[in-house]
Amino acid sequence: MSIYYKVVLFQVLIILFPMLVYHLFFNENERDRRKPHSKLTIIQLIILILAMSFPIKFAEGYVYDFRIIPFMISFIYGGTIPGLITWVVLMIYRFIIGGDGFTVVLINYSLTCVLLILTGKKIASFHKKHKLVFISLVFWTNTFIVMLTLFTKNQSSQISFMLIFYTITWVCLMLVVFVIENVNQQMMIREKLQRDEKLNVVSQLAASVAHEVRNPLTSVRGFLQLMSDDNNLQESQKSYIRIALNELEHAQSIINDYLSLAKPNTEELTSINISDEVKKTLALMKSYSNIQNITIETDIQDSLYVKGNRGEMKQLLVNIIKNGIEAMTTEGVLTVRAFEKDGLISIDISDTGKGMTANQIEKLGTPFYTTKEKGTGVGLTISYQLIQAMKGRVNVESEPGIGTTFTIQFPSA
């Protein structure tokens, strides 16, 4: 029996050492992991081959190894394509190894494969705790099927060893999940620090420059307005003044954005009716949408209350709705929904515009990043900052050529 436990320790080493290397030297984000040639997929394939090459042979045709760990990790953290690649390699290598258990392995892993594909998007949205529970349920269901197979094959003598082996396997699986979740957390912290550093630079710039620029702009605007009242001016000259005033308004709007970014007014959060705020904002944007020939469709549940600042809530709604309108050319449809689910107030703002790539979505909210030709990127940065300050969160789903959906969620007040 001691030889079995030596092999078990070797299997543990096969699993944990490559994952430790991955943790120390490779920092892949979620998008990179879903590529077929990602470092995570390559490491899982190496682990799979090594684990199946050095199994425990308990009886003729019955072998034990840690193959289920790279199989599940590829699906859960890599996605459908890396998972299917791992499944195909597993089946081919198991067929080459031979033995009576191939049919059982094929059925068992195929069913697990279908389950992981169907629940892939749901798993990706789970927090670490829920993800651990789900992975454990799938693992022990798989183990239960193996146990039933042993009973039907009159191999009950293996049950005690099988339970010990699979318990060790489960512990290793949990360790691997913790390693990857730790990598995810480090990536998020690093990105947040970089974002906060950029915001800090922009805030300092805004605080030091915006007031100084606003004063001369106010003076210039005042003199231009006085000049426009002069009856001795020609109509062409008055039109030039109107153009100059419009450009000054645009400059003033940008300065206000920078001032909001420097110091968002979210210190006093009160209970506000978000349903009314959404309706008022849509009424405000109605004329702008008509100019752009955009149809606005709404489905707003009444009496939805959140903790927030009324003025800042209006500002972020205007920013995101305006972006949705400007993302469409003509005859587009902007759909706005507001509803409550599971104690969260959700506001969905969907457009039928040009959409965005995954790389563009990832950069949204960072200072100076914009997909518009004449945009500064500050408006969306402010919106993200205000949502976070009001204890909310935002999720963006988009497909190029189809459209974009912004989902803003706040805790119900």
Automatic annotation (TrEMBL):
InterPro entries in UniProt: HATPase_C_sf, HATPase_dom, His_kinase_dom, HisK_dim/P_dom, HisK_dim/P_sf, Sig_transdc_His_kin-like_C, Sig_transdc_His_kinase_LytS_TM
Q: Any transmembrane segments, and where?
A: 7-26, 38-56, 68-96, 102-120, 132-152, 158-180
SMART domains, per database record: HATPase_c, HisKA
PROSITE patterns linked: HIS_KIN
Protein's cellular compartments: Cell membrane
Grouped into one coarse class, the protein's main location is membrane
**One Pfam family linked to the record:** HATPase_c
Gene3D superfamilies on file: 1.10.287.130, Histidine kinase-like ATPase, C-terminal domain
Signal peptide stretch: none
Histidine kinase domain spans which residues? 208-413
Q: What is its EC number?
A: 2.7.13.3
Q: Which GO terms describe its molecular function?
A: kinase activity
**Which keywords has UniProt assigned to this entry?**
ATP-binding, Cell membrane, Kinase, Membrane, Nucleotide-binding, Phosphoprotein, Transferase, Transmembrane, Transmembrane helix, Two-component regulatory system
Output this protein's name: histidine kinase
Provenance organism: Neobacillus paridis
